[in-house]
C-alpha cells in the first residue's frame, strides 16, 4: 500500500476514500467508501486509514454466506467469521477516532459527550432498511458486536502474539521458540485433559482436575521414576499465568483465577553438580589428542569454559566484537544484544582470557557460528564426547562442572568474594562501588588459579 493511498485532504481534515472491489460489488452497493478521519494529522490519518483498510477487508470477506454448514469445517469457519467481525468492528471504530466498547460497556460508562459523538458519527440516510455496510458501521461505533469467547488455545496464541510481547522483544529466535515451547507444554496438557473449551468457561473443578492429574504423576509408580514437583509447578504456573494475563488484558482484573493456590511443595534438589578436581582436569582432560574426533568448535568452546567459568551458551553465542584479543589484557565480553537476552543483568561482565582459554579463543577469534543460538546441540555434543571418553568422575559431574570448578578454585585461592561474584555473573547484594577492578587486576588474580597445560592440547 502506498503511503497516502485512500487518503484525501479536504477542509483541513483527512478523509478516507476507497472504491469497493469489483468482486464484492454485488454484496456492497456503496460503490465508494468515504468518510472523514476526524484529524488534520497525516500520521494519525495513516493509522486510522490502516485500521479501516483491515476492517473493510474483513467486512467484505464476511459477506459470503457460510450459514447452514453443519460440518466441523463449517463450525471453524463460523468461529473465524465471528472473530473477524469483532476485530473489524474494533478497527472500524478506531478509524473513526473511537475506542471500541460493547454496548453494555458504553451504557455502564455513561459518558454523555462520547455517546453523543458516536451517535452523530453514524450517518442516518433515512431510506428504510439499512445496508450491511451501514449496520457494520453502527455496530462498530455503538458497540453492537460482543467479543466471541476465545478457546484456551486461541487465548494462548493471543498471549504469545500480543499480551506478552514485551517478554519477547529482546529474545533471539531460538530463545523465543524455547520460551513458547516451555509455556505451551503445560497449556497443551490441560487442553488434552479438559478439552479446548472457551477460556471463560474454565472452572475451579477443571483446575482441580489438572492438579490431581499432576498429583498422580508425582506419586511413585512401579518401574517408573516419579516426576519432580518443580515440573508440575512450572506447568500449572504457566496455565495460571495465562489466565491472569488474559483476563487482565480484557479488563476483568477481579475475576478469580481457577488455578489460584494450586501447587506442590518442592523438595530440595538432590542433583547438585559437582566440580572437577584440579588433578582430574590436568591429567584426564588437558591431554594432547584427548578430543581428537570431535568438531573443532565444540572442542575449543570446552577449553574456553575452563578458565572463564562461563556458561556453555555464553561462549557459544560470542560474536567477533565480543572477543577482544588485540588488547593489553585479552578478554571476552558477555553482554545482551538487541536480539538476544542473557540470563540475568548480573551476567553482563568482562572476563580476562588466560591459559588454555586464551589459546582457544585465539583459534576462533570470530566466535563459534556452528553453535550460535544452539545450546542444546552444544550440550549434547560435549556430553557425548565426555561420556565416550569416560571423563565424568561420577553421575553428578556434567559439562557445567567446569563452572563449579572455576568458582571453587577462586575460593580456595583467596580471591575476593565481590570479584568472584563479578566473574561468575552472580548478583551481588552489596551496594555497587567502583567497577569491580581493572582487567589487569582481574587477570592477575585469575593467574593464581590457571591450569598448566602441555603443548599440543589446543
C-alpha Rg (nearest Å)? 31 Å
What are the secondary-structure elements, in order, as H or E? EEEHHHHHHHHHHHHHEEEHHHHH
Structural class: mainly alpha
Percent range for helical residues?
40-55%
End-to-end gap: 57 Å
State the low-pLDDT regions, or none. none
Proportion of strand residues: 5-15%
Strand order within the widest beta sheet = 1-2-3
Gross geometry: elongated
Task: Describe the structure in your own words.
The chain has 458 residues and is mainly alpha-helical. The protein is built from 18 helices and six strands. It has a three-stranded antiparallel sheet, with helices on one face. α6 packs across α10, α8 packs across α10 (229-249) and α12 packs antiparallel against α14 (355-363). The mean pLDDT is 87.
Secondary-structure map:
Blueprint: E1 7-10, E2 13-19, E3 32-36, H1 42-62, H2 72-95, H3 103-109, H4 112-121, H5 132-142, H6 152-163, H7 165-168, H8 173-194, H9 204-218, H10 229-249, H11 278-285, H12 296-306, H13 312-316, E4 323-324, E5 331-334, E6 349-352, H14 355-363, H15 375-388, H16 401-412, H17 417-424, H18 439-446
Antiparallel strand pairs: 1-2, 2-3, 4-5, 5-6
Helix pairs in contact: 1-2, 2-5, 6-8, 6-10, 8-9, 8-10, 12-14
